[in-house]
Amino acid sequence: MAAANNPSINRAQIAQLVRESLRRHVQNGTSPQASQGPNPLVVNISARHCHLSQESVETLFGKGHQLTPKKWLYQEGQYAAEESVTLIGPRSRVISNLRILGPCRDFDQVELAATDAISLGFKVPVRNSGDIAGTPGCMLMGPAGFLEMNEGVIRAAPHVHMAPEDAAFYGVENKSFMKLRVGGDVGVTFDRIFVRVDPSFKLEVHIDTDEGNACGFSQDVPCELIK
Amino acid sequence: MAAANNPSINRAQIAQLVRESLRRHVQNGTSPQASQGPNPLVVNISARHCHLSQESVETLFGKGHQLTPKKWLYQEGQYAAEESVTLIGPRSRVISNLRILGPCRDFDQVELAATDAISLGFKVPVRNSGDIAGTPGCMLMGPAGFLEMNEGVIRAAPHVHMAPEDAAFYGVENKSFMKLRVGGDVGVTFDRIFVRVDPSFKLEVHIDTDEGNACGFSQDVPCELIK
C-alpha cells in the first residue's frame, strides 16, 4: 500500500516544511523549485497494491461488500482499505496481503515493483496508471472467491500529482515529464517523472519500493522536483 | 554474486559495442563519452555477495581450503567462487547461498542491497568497498564452522572501475564522482558513481540489484557515463 498519511497529522508534509525552512536558512537558494513553490513537495513510496472495481470487490468479498478505509492517503479521498487479497502469479507463486486502495475505480489494476514481479516469476511493463492494454494478468483470491484478471498487472511509472497552480509554477503540462533529484548517500535522479495535473491533486511524487530502496529514500533525504 | 562474464565470450561487452555502433549510425553524436572513449562502457549488476580473507575461508570451509573459481568476472582475475555461505542476520533471519567472490582479500566484507538488509531486519550503511569501520556485523555459516563478523556488512556505493586512460578521457580522478545515466522506460541517473582508478581495471560500472531493478536495467538499455 502507498505510504499513508493522516490528513490532520501529516508527518511527510511537516518534514518537508522543516527541510525547506532549513534549506532557505542554510543554503544560498540553489533549489528555487523546492523552496519557493506554492505547495510543499511531498514524496511517498507506494508499496505493491491494487485498485479494483466495485464488481470485483463483490466477487472477492461477497455481494454488496463495501471497502472499509483503514488509513487515509495524502491525496484527498484516497485510502488504504482494511481489505487485502492474495495474488497468484503465472507460476502459482503467491503474494499475500496485497493491499486494496480505495475508493473503487472502473477497472482492476495491480501495481508491483520489479522485485515483486521477479519473485512471482513474470515480466511486468512500466505503465502509467490506467494504461493496461496488453499487460499481463493474474489471479486474485479473496474470502468469497477468485477473480481472474486477464490484464492489469503493471509496474507504475514514477509520477507526480499536482494542481494547476503547481504546474504553472514548474512550467509543466499534464502528461509531460519532470525530474526528481534525490540527495543523500546514494544520489539518484529519476529522469522521467510523469506529470498528472488535476485541480483535486495535492503535490505528491509517487515512487515504488524498488525506486525508494535504490535511492535510499527516507523523509530526511532532500528531494527536488526539476522541470 | 556479480553478473559474471567469461573473458573470452563477453556478452555485455559485445552488447555495448553493438549499441555504440548503432548509436553512431542512428544518432547525431549526443553521447560522446559513450561512443568515443578508449574502452567500451560495461555496466553490470552485483547481487549480494561477500569477500573473505583466507583465514575466514578456512574457518568456514576447513583448514587449508582454497576457493574454487566457478565463473570469471569482467575484472581481471576476479571470480565468483563455487563456495557460498549462509548469512545469519541480527534477528536470526537467514540468507542462504551468499556467493563468495575471490580471490581472498585481507578483510571480510558482505555486500547487500537495501532489500536484502530490510528482509534481514537491519540497517546497512552505504559505503565504498573496504570502508567498513563502524558498520554492522553478522554471522556466516559454512560446512566447517561459523564466522562471527563484528563489522563489514555494507551496501556498496555504486562505483566505476577504470584504467588511467579512461580517467584521462572522462577528465576524472580516482575517488571522485561521476554520473551514470540509464535510459529506457524508467530513466534514472545515478548522480554519485564513485570512481576507482587502477591500471589493472577494465571500464565497468557496478550497481546493485535494487539499483538495477529501479532503473529497469538490462544489457539492452542505453547507459551513459557523464562527468
TrEMBL record, chains A, B:
Cofactor(s) recorded in Swiss-Prot or TrEMBL: Zn(2+)
Predominant subcellular localization, coarse grouping: other
Sorted UniProt keywords: Acyltransferase, Bacterial microcompartment, Metal-binding, Transferase, Zinc
Catalytic activity: propanoyl-CoA + phosphate = propanoyl phosphate + CoA
Keyword Transport annotated: no
One Pfam short name: PTAC
One GO CC term on file: bacterial microcompartment
Primary enzyme class: transferase
Pathway this chain belongs to: Polyol metabolism; 1,2-propanediol degradation
An example molecular function term from Gene Ontology annotations: metal ion binding
Keyword Zinc appears in the UniProt entry: yes
Domain of life: Bacteria
EC assignment: 2.3.1.222
Subcellular localization: Bacterial microcompartment
Record GO biological process: 1,2-propanediol catabolic process
Family per record: Belongs to the PduL family.
PANTHER family: PHOSPHATE PROPANOYLTRANSFERASE
General function of this protein: Involved in 1,2-propanediol (1,2-PD) degradation by catalyzing the conversion of propanoyl-CoA to propanoyl-phosphate.
Protein name per the record: Phosphate propanoyltransferase
